[in-house]
């Protein structure tokens, strides 16, 4: 739960930390003029790089950072700046390299360790991250960023007491930063101290009421407290604030599906994700799950198939589609190849169990078929039911009628077979020309043989005819 909110926060972190400029166009013009006058001024390139960075033009920002380093290769700040660009563009190894270079030039600046620690944390190297944040704190005991980020790292490795200590210190140093209350709430949530977690999230929202992340985090806490309707309200608020962020639709959809069991609402949210991102494999799988739970089996199979089209190696979609072919459609010929595609995946145990069930069912089917072909009346009736309902085979009314007829005419005939064949004729399935008469005769024979369902149907038909 907390890891998801951290990922969302990392996506939005640039918005929180970017350099605020009133007029980027004018600022860029000023930088261009400065560079034109002083083409070897490293600082001028660095400042223009900041402008490009604020504009989201990372390529141009990187060019200017490279130029500033070329002109002044011993300036640690320039490597730090370029490290930030590399991190923002997903080049984590290059970012670590540049932050390390900045540290080698000036090992007494806490912010360089903080920045490298953030990169380590973003790629899951939490021990290295904690080491860097701790080093930053040793350099600057009032480095609020290092305390806050180390608290996050401790939370991710479930060292919650250490995390709380760091968040408490960060709040002491900066009591007006909403992130620290939200992050401390995450640690309390990990400890299942939901009342304290909720109080911290409320504080964060009070400080920053338009930050969608805090509503998502509070929704997660409310969900853990089984206050599902309140959680939905918070997820909905997050969607209102960030209507283009598919993450909130996923979270709300999961809440509807897993906890509230409102599958239609879940389907609607996953459909919104697909509308925003038509190639999102996870959304098709999640919507398929909701369709399956809502007993919309054809729609579920269609979505699993779409997920497979988008990702032919999606073991989950193969497993689920194969399982549905077997359990819901009774089509083992379709189920087996899908399940075999999912063998060796994390679903391997369930896959093997299902394949064993299919093998047992096939063996039973062949045994029943052999008995039926050798004149066993009960087996013939069973074969009729298999084809009528599609148990492991494609539904085939003509084959069902064939086996019911054999069972009905063998010796005294099987009463259940006569009754089921009569029902088929009544519903127009493989019915002969004089189906009404034959159906009546079959029902009467079944009733005489003591088949209660046949007796009840005859009585019902008699009442209706009056």
Which class of secondary structure composition applies to the elements? mainly alpha
CATH top level assignment of the largest domain: Mainly Alpha
Order of helices and strands: HHHHHHHHHHHHHHHHHHHHHHHHHH
Number of domains: 2
C-alpha geometry: elongated
Can you walk me through this structure?
The structure is a single chain. The protein has 466 residues and is an all-alpha fold. The protein folds into two domains: 2-288, Alpha Horseshoe (Serine Threonine Protein Phosphatase 5, Tetratricopeptide repeat), CATH 1.25.40; 375-465, Serine Threonine Protein Phosphatase 5, Tetratricopeptide repeat (Alpha Horseshoe), CATH 1.25.40. The protein is built from 26 helices and no strands. The radius of gyration is 34 Å and the shape is elongated. It starts with a helix and ends with a helix. The relative contact order is 0.04. The model is unreliable at 10-21 (pLDDT under 50).
Topology, pairings included?
Blueprint (H helix, E strand, L loop, with lengths): L1 H16 L6 H14 L4 H14 L2 H14 L4 H13 L3 H14 L4 H13 L3 H14 L4 H13 L3 H14 L4 H13 L3 H14 L4 H13 L3 H14 L4 H15 L2 H14 L4 H13 L3 H14 L4 H13 L4 H10 L6 H26 L3 H13 L7 H13 L5 H12 L8 H14 L3 H14 L1
Helix pairs in contact: 1-13, 2-3, 3-4, 4-5, 5-6, 5-7, 6-7, 7-8, 7-9, 8-9, 9-10, 9-11, 10-11, 11-12, 12-13, 13-14, 14-15, 15-16, 16-17, 17-18, 18-19, 19-20, 20-21, 21-22, 22-23, 23-24, 24-25, 25-26
Summarize the structure.
By secondary structure, this protein is an all-alpha fold. It contains 26 helices and no strands. The chain folds into two domains: 2-288, Tetratricopeptide repeat domain (Serine Threonine Protein Phosphatase 5, Tetratricopeptide repeat); 375-465, Serine Threonine Protein Phosphatase 5, Tetratricopeptide repeat.
